[in-house]
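User: Structure please.
Assistant: Input sequence and predicted structure:
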Amino acid sequence: MSYSDYTPETIVARGDAIYQQRRREVEPHHNGKFWVVDIDTGDYEIDDKDFVAASRLRAKHPNPVIYCTRIGCLTANPLGFRLSVLTDYPSGTVTARGEAIYQKLQNEVERHHNGEFLVIDIQTEDYEIDVRSTAAINRLLSKHPDAVIYLVRIGHQAAYQLGSGGTYGTLKK
């Protein structure tokens, strides 16, 4: 199935179903770690850092459709997206470039979209806005499959309080 056929809800539903099947394998030995699965293949990786697990999965499958959750934790916002590119950007570069682009857009987007998610491709400066982060991410990746993503919640200091920035984008702390 091509990536464009997946909705964020489909990715999350399939990812959660795979997690439930594998739950006994990973809980309780890995509680608190990130579990990242390619919903097409069922292959998964586990690590303390979400982007490390995603990078290892990307090494096995070039264009995985990713579901990410934390093992043994109830997740208010599980993530489902396509991991399309790994970057060689030095640590902090994605965040710095994303914040600089956000500053250019800030007045306009805060006036009309406060509280929504802004997803920016730091390479093209193209962006998407939605009330659901996964919907914005998926729309941006549909236009720019190799996007390097910066995610922020408009008018807030952070999009989410989880994980660490990394190779596939930044979930700002």
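The first strand starts at residue 34 and ends at 38.
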